[in-house]
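(Deposited chain)
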Amino acid sequence: MHGITHFLASWTVANIPELERRDRAIVTLAGIAPDLDSAGIVIEMFNNHSATSLPWYSMYHHVLAHNLLFGLAIFVAGMAVAKRRLFTAFLSFAVFHLHLLCDLIGSRGPDGYVWPISYFYPFSRYPEIAWSGQWELNAWPNIVFTIVLLAATFYLAWKRGFSPLEIISKRADQALVGALRHRFGVPKRHS
């Protein structure tokens, strides 16, 4: 799935009422962290036509950060920096696995390559977890899921008074929430 979809899915999960801004950001970032292993695409693009090409993206995307060890590192990091340590760490571990699940379901390449997950890497590349029915990255289910997540994000921002933009800028967050509330009205408070 696309990075924006992982981001929105993780932020939606992070909207559990017990979490404050900082912990929501930790959970949200944990959900996109596995794609750090896609940074090799830049190296691969520049070295693709050289005699000593480095296929870092082709060889290590869905490997280096899509495994149990990386998930445990995310859990430990959540424990170390969150305000609600254990709760945030568990949610971070859960959205990490949600990322893996989404990749298993819908990240097949345009060439038909099914991305496997080497869950026990670096201890073992096998067994590789894959699903033969994995739909393409740009398939309609991914598009529908992203649209549903966008709708949920706008609804939550309108209802709760903060959006994913709070991670980047309080000002941008307030502007988005203000625009939503100007358009759809201020939500009624339940007593």
User: Anything to note?
Assistant: Residues 3-134 form one domain. Residues 158 and 183 are 10 Å apart (CA to CA). The two ends are 39 Å apart (CA to CA).
